[in-house]
Amino acid sequence: MRMIRSSLEARRDGREQSPQELQDFIAGVVSGEVTRAQAAAWLAFTFHTGMTDAETVALTLAMRDSGEVLSWPSDGGLLIDKHSTGGVGDKVSLVLAPLWASLGMRVPMLSGRGLGITGGTLDKLESIPGFDTGLSLSELKNTMAEVGCFMNGQTAELAPADRILYALRDETCTVPSIPFITASILSKKLAEGISNLVMDVKCGNGAFMQTKEEAQALSESLVRVGNSAGLQTEAHITDMSQPLGLAVGNALEVEEAVACLQGGGPSDLRELVLKLSPDAESAAQGLDSGTAHEKWLELVSAHHGDPGAPLLGGGCARLDIKSEEKGEIVACHAGNIGQAAFSLGAGRIKAGDPVHHGVGVLLRAKRGDTVQAGQVLATIVYDEERDCHEKASAIVAASYKIA
After folding, report:
1. Sorting pLDDT into bands at 50, 70 and 90, what band is 152?
2. Which of 91, 230, 316, 339 is the most exposed place for a label (fewest CB within 10 A)?
3. Catalytic-labelled residue, pool 81, 90, 123, 239
């Protein structure tokens, strides 16, 4: 009890906590010795007083050590993962995991679900019939040995402190704290047992970090803390003022990712995939040669999915949104496009809500394109049983600004 009071007083008064104090407090959070009220108070105090880098490193390691840490044979390829802070149309992980594995790297990728307008990798994968994102630890280890990568949800054994604290952060309005965001991301990545991490920090109206300054601050924190914690970390700030690629929606994005893995797909998606890869030239060869797509088929099969089955996007109707004027598109608002897809059922309001895998928005034109009056700007893919396409079409139309 004294340890708990001391931790609360330290956070309240802005006194720096030692690694052992933070380790003990996080252990208490997981064991239940620290009550929800005490943990909530600690979060609120820390949100206002901040944390030093040393404290953030200690918090990250304590959260990592709150559960099991995966380990892998030392004689294999580079152990690497990529993490995005989330955006609209962001299907890069679907491409990078099999691509990197096809190049001899090992990619133990633990992903999340979407919330609000930003899509989740797990929701996209589950638009593939049979794809299981809840493999056990033993299954994950077998998949890594056989395929060289996996794409799974976080298991109960890994970083349990993060699940507890994240739920409390949401309840206490302390989510937008750079130390908390940093520790949450890195603790899970360290628990994967990787040596290298590539961060994709999205910036713009379709991202969590809306300004360049916010994105820069988070990027720098992730790199400093990650490297100090023994994880070789690099961060890239990428644009999310318009959607990535042309597809927004779960099954639609899987189709686009597969096209990229086959050497096609939108140019901006391919460019970002190559930018984030350790060796862009080898990555391009992997996409164009078909080896990345072959690895994708292996990955889907290892997760019990049917790579040849139609995606869970059938039975949907389509509605074209046309330009009312001639000119150049100067804006294609990512946040609004994401909101349109959300209103169609592609996203969820709270954790546990179902998503419609088939609905979404297909962009036919983006910023910099010249369009004619009557030309199709985007196509809405919607469920006819849901009376929502008129609202979504209005949102999409308003997302475009034509000079």
Report:
1. very high
2. 230
3. 81
Q: In this structure, what token pair is assigned to residue 255?
A: 């189709």
Average of per-residue pLDDT across 71-86: 95
CATH assignment at residue 342: 3.90.1170.30
pTM above 0.90, yes or no: yes
> Residue 211 burial (CB < 10 Å; 0-12/13-18/19+)?
exposed
Residue at 289 is within a domain: yes
Catalytic residue among 11, 56, 64, 82: 82
* Residue 57 belongs to some domain of the structure: no
Distance of alpha carbon 162 from alpha carbon 306, whole angstroms: 32
| pLDDT (average), residues 377-394 | 92
Location of structure tokens 């590539």? 198
Asked, for residue 253, whether it belongs to a domain, the answer is yes
Let me know whether 379 and 236 are in one domain. Answer: no
Per annotation, catalytic residue among 46, 84, 233, 238:
84
370 pairs with which residues across the strands? 328
Domain range enclosing 398: 317-402
Active-site residue, selected from the candidate residues 113, 169, 202, 356: 169
- Tokens for 402, please give them: 């034509």
